[in-house]
Amino acid sequence: MGRPPCCDKEGVKKGPWTPEEDLALVSYVQEHGPGNWRAVPANTGLMRCSKSCRLRWTNYLRPGIRRGGFSDQEDRLIVHLQALLGNRWAAIASYLPERTDNDVKNYWNTHLKKKLLVEQQQQQQQQLLNQPRAASTPSLPPPPPKGQWELKLQTDIGLARRALRDALRVDAAAVGLLGTITTTSPALSSGDPGAAQAYALTARSVSSMLEAGWAGPAGKQSCAVVGGVVVPAPATPGAAESASGSSSELTECSGSISSPSKRAAALAPCQPFAREAEKAAAGVVVPLSEIESWLLEDGCGEQKPAHDGLLLDAARHNFGF
DNA sequence: AACTCCATCAACCGCTGGTAT
DNA sequence: AATACCAGCGGTTGATGGAGT
């Protein structure tokens, strides 16, 4: 017996959200915390389906989201993670705490994919110029023999890991994962002149309101906004401030859109990540030292197949076997 | 000025996995 | 064990605005 689609009901509004709708949603979430989305339309009077409410919150209204203005470091991180994980945008976005999966996905499709294509073409042209005699041979290397598959995979993963490490290292402050997370609101990056700005300002005020006063209900959704990022509410006053002051701590909200349990499962084969994911699932603010040490630890990935599960998983996804 | 084309991104849709009953 | 429900994910679409002609 199939399930009826949630958005087929009559009277359900679709299309862009109005400031009034945003405000109603934000007010509700502020009071009850994110979750139980099914109850949101009924309790707010919004003529939207629960799914639409959740998406609007997670992709736009949620505090701590930075929109647009991807830095070079973020570009590199996304490119490397995409090579490593494939189109698992939620997983990739989980490494960029200020970005949503939708944002990363859109940015990949509209910018990075083309950028990579251009770079590849330039590289191929350069190769042709450097090796005029080899022009008659195919430009792409032949696929490795089946027997060498695992060897190639491990080499590729080693390269990907090294590249990821480089991307993370360059300017930690520019990437929320390692650095201080800057305060921004969803609308701050809009910067578009004209009429669109009116709504952007409204959205910003909504966000500012959240940043000023956000706090989930005690015992249910204990989050707080620190420096524009949702973090677990501190056990004692001032704890959030100390957390925000630490440059090497990952801010994580146990009840936000990120799915710690899924992340834990996805990263389970990779022990250092799995430990972090378990802690995150428990709502603990996770220091990045273990992830960093894994990234910075030379030879770990190549010599001991401790992460084979993750590697094979990525390979299966990318190469469809 | 009017029109077309293209890029961007918010939002929708369909599907999957997890969980409660 | 079977079913129904819910949240989340990834692919796709459609509205919008800017650039080019």
TrEMBL record:
Q: Which UniProt keywords apply?
A: DNA-binding, Nucleus, Repeat, Transcription, Transcription regulation
PANTHER family with a match to the protein in the record:
MYB FAMILY TRANSCRIPTION FACTOR (PTHR10641), MYB TRANSCRIPTION FACTOR MYB30 (PTHR10641:SF1094)
Myb-like domain mapped to chain residues: 9-61, 62-112
* HTH myb-type domain location: 9-65, 66-116
Q: Name one GO biological process term.
A: regulation of lignin biosynthetic process
Per the record, what is one GO cellular component? nucleus
What is this protein identified as?
Myb-related protein 306
Subcellular localization: Nucleus
Q: Gene3D superfamilies of this UniProt entry?
A: Homeodomain-like
Under the heading Pfam families, the entry gives: Myb_DNA-binding (PF00249)
Region Disordered: what ranges?
122-148
- Single GO MF descriptor: DNA-binding transcription factor activity
Annotated Low complexity bias: 122-138
